[in-house]
Structures are given as structure tokens and as C-alpha cells.
Amino acid sequence: MMSQTAAEPIQRRKLYQEVMDRLLDMMRDEGLAVGDQLPSERDLMERYGVGRPAVREALQNMAQLGLISIAHGERARVAKPSFANLYESIALTTSGILRNSPESLRDLKEARLLFEVQMVRLAAQRATPEDVARLRRRLEDHHASLADLGQFFRHDMLFHREIAVITGNSIFPDLSQAVIGWLGEFYSQLVRLPGTEQLTLSEHGQILEAIAAADADAAERAMRDHILRANKLYAQHQGQGAATAG
To answer: Per the database record, which ranges form the HTH gntR-type domain (predicted)?
Structure first.
């Protein structure tokens, strides 16, 4: 007997999505390299038998994904794909998810903790004297930014990104920057709490010295304490805000 369960409806794809697929196939089949131009919008319209809106939407979406670059008055060119472009393309969506889903925010904070503590272990194991000197300059820049809270948060991110660079893993720097950027709007208010800036700098100093000593266990403990302290402080701050609003 045939199953009585309802069949899932077939989702109809939008025209621009079909154009995107064709363009990606064309780029692969014709061996287009970074910097090569794509056909003009008119040529693409004729090639695929579609209107200008479908072609333009396909190109704009590909540009947002970092697959092509578009300059005014010129034909689109093949871009060099990067994880930075990928993370940037989903930043707005991610921000919306985190604002409207406390569970997703909690899960991202947990994912960041696991990522950062393992990342700092690698950094401690692999850091060269030049790496340590570069990280020390990052911390000095962070100290120097105390007068400007916006710059202070930026240098906070750059310190963590430098640790990612030290690991030698090409994916980690952009991933670290993206995650901290996504969480930024939730944590940036914490640097305005009295004493928080100096505590952050002190914790960064402990992380730095553990990396300089090639002590992976100490680096992991320092990073774990640093992130858990920030998470706890954020939770307390949010709780106080909710009580005040009530």
C-alpha cells in the first residue's frame, strides 16, 4: 500500500538562483581565474534567456558571497574567495538570530569558549619570539586605547586575532574576528562598567605571559577564566537590566 503521509511539496527555486548556478558552472567550465571578467549583463541575458533583474540579483548575491567583485561601469570580475568574505556575508543574518534567540547566543558563547581555549593552546605551543613580540605590541596598543571605548573594544578583538595568527592556521584569524564581531554588540556595553577595562588588560597580560612561556596549560586556564568572567559579567548585567526594566 502507498504511504498515507503527505508528500513534502517541491520547493520552486527563484530565477536568479538558477542564473547563479549557471554562472558558477560557467566560471568552472571556462576556467575563469581571479580578476577575469564575466560576460556583460546583456550577454548573460541572451545566454540564459532571462531578464535583467534576474541577472542583476544573481550578480549581487555572488558579490555578497565574495565570489565576484562589481565596480560601477565595469563588468563583474572573479574575486578571490576568502573566509573573511563568507563571515561578512552572514553577519547581518547572524546578528538577527542572536538578538532574537537567547539560546543561539548562549550556544555561540559556548562555541567561542571551546574554540578560544584550544586556539590559545596551539599558540602557546607554536609561538616564536617574533610572535610574542607582536602580541606584546598588540597589548601595548590595547593599553593605549583606554581613553576611547570604541577603540578599546577594537584592540580587544585584535589581541585575540593575533593569537589566532600565531597558531599558523589560516582559518582561525578570520573566524576569531567574526565571532567576536558577532558578539560585539552584546559585550561592548561591558567595557563601560567601572574597572572592567583594567581587568580585561590584566587578563590579556596573563594570557600573553603564558604564551611567552610556552605553557599551554597556563594559557588555556587564563583564556578560560577570561572568557567565563566576561560571560558571567554579561549575564549579571543583563539580569540587572531586566530587573530595572521590570
So the answer is: 13-81
Q: Is 68 helix (H, G, I), strand (E, B) or coil?
A: strand
Residue 33 CA to residue 35 CA, distance in Å, equals 6
At 220-242, the pLDDT tens digits run 999 999 999 887 876 665 555 43
Going from the C-alpha of 92 to that of each of 88, 98, 151, 153, 181, the distances in angstroms are 8, 10, 22, 19, 11
Sorted by sequence, the CB contacts under 8 Å of residue 113 that are 6+ apart come out as: 224, 227, 228, 231
**Dihedral sign from CA coordinates of 102, 107, 111, 114:** positive
What type of residue is 16?
Y
b/e per residue, 90-116, with b = 16+ CB within 10 A?
eeeebbeebeeeeeebeebbeebbebb
CB 36 within 8 A of CB 78: yes
How far apart are the C-alpha atoms of 52 and 80, rounded to whole Å? 25
Domains in the chain, ordered, with CATH? 15-81 (1.10.10.10), 87-245 (1.20.120.530)
Q: Which helix (H) or strand (E) segment is 69 a member of?
A: strand 68-69
Q: How far is CA 160 from CA 64, 69, 156, 165, 203, in A?
A: 26, 29, 7, 9, 12
What 3-state DSSP class applies to 77?
Answer: strand
pLDDT tens sequence across 166-196: 999 999 998 898 888 888 766 655 555 667 8
Q: How many residues does the structure list for the chain?
A: 246
User: Model pTM?
Assistant: 0.66
Which SS3 state, helix, strand or coil, does residue 78 take? strand
